[in-house]
Write a structure and sequence with these properties.
The protein has 291 residues and is mainly α. It folds into 2 domains: 70 residues, no CATH class; 209 residues, no CATH class. It has 10 helices and 2 strands. A two-stranded antiparallel ribbon has the order 1-2. The two termini are 22 Å apart.
Length: 291
């Protein structure tokens, strides 16, 4: 019992270190950019961008190596056996969700698709292929931080799994704040949203909290991070391609808030949350039956 309490206290301590470093180090990098008169929007030279990308994974690896967290729950093995359906889900969920939301948006008159020609679809497909590899590498860094470290650690110390997922989503969102507020060029932000920053961040918070339930449940069910790497990959590249190629447009602020494809429209949040809660309940029901 004393050992269990000691392990839990160590995990809580290390979680605090992880959160402070993950949320603070990117801002430190941005501050150093300001002091050094470096353009924080320049991804090749900005310390803010560098610290933003490496802080979560770097901190988690150091905690595993030197602070007693160990490597057992890293989720490095692909665990293909018996998890084919979860890999299929990971690859298909975001594209199918985007299509469904586009259809709903078209049906209620809040989304427009000005050009459904083969040439436009080809441009979208090319954009998807071009961005796939760099996004895959980026999402290895991201997912082995959030699902490889934060999800199993929070789940080990929080008695209510859904609360653990929501906490993960909130911290995940907090890491994105410097990305949206100071690292991305304002013109880039305006290129993928017409919302004011306050509303954009609010929808983003709820979007990541809902997504964290789905991603976290897949991580727990498969005991591997790789399905979530692939899921995150498809979630980024298809949406970015559609936005970059101006495949669709939302009708006003209400159209974007309610029925825009992606992570953070109201329809997307509700579908993510419903899917995640269903996964959680069926997992708990299976565990209860097995017990």
């Amino acid at each position: 019992m004393d050992k269990q309490i000691s392990n839990k206290n160590r995990t809580i301590r290390n979680l605090g270190i992880f959160v402070i470093c993950t949320l603070g180090i990117p801002w430190l990098g941005w501050g150093l950019d300001m002091l050094g008169n470096i353009n924080p929007h320049d991804q090749q030279k900005s310390l803010g961008w560098l610290f933003f990308l490496i802080a979560p994974l770097g901190t988690s690896l150091l905690l595993r190596a030197f602070a007693g967290d160990g490597w057992k729950d890293l989720g490095l093995k692909p665990a293909f056996k018996g998890n084919g359906k979860w890999y299929a889900f990971a690859l298909l969920f975001h594209p199918l969700l985007n299509v469904l939301i586009l259809v709903i948006g078209l049906g209620i008159g809040l989304t427009l698709i000005p050009d459904l020609s083969m040439s436009r679809l080809t441009l979208v497909g090319q954009a998807v292929l071009i961005s796939a590899f760099p996004n895959f590498i980026k999402n290895i860094f991201e997912e082995f931080s959030w699902r490889g470290y934060l999800t199993p650690k929070i789940q080990s110390v929080v008695d209510r799994p859904l609360l653990g997922h929501l906490l993960t989503g909130m911290i995940w969102f907090g890491w994105h704040l410097p990305y949206y507020l100071v690292l991305l060029d304002p013109a880039t932000v305006r290129g993928f949203t017409s919302l004011n920053m306050g509303l954009f961040l609010l929808t983003g918070l709820f979007g990541l909290m809902a997504a964290a339930i789905v991603y976290g449940e897949i991580r727990i069910r498969t005991n591997s991070v790789w399905p979530t790497v692939l899921m995150h990959l498809t979630g980024n590249i298809f949406l970015a391609a559609m936005i970059g190629q101006k495949f669709f447009s939302s009708v006003g602020v209400f159209g974007e808030v309610l029925a825009s494809p992606g992570w953070s429209s109201m329809i997307s949040i509700l579908l993510f949350a419903a899917t995640g809660v269903w996964f959680y309940r069926t997992r708990m029901g299976t565990a209860g039956a097995a017990g």
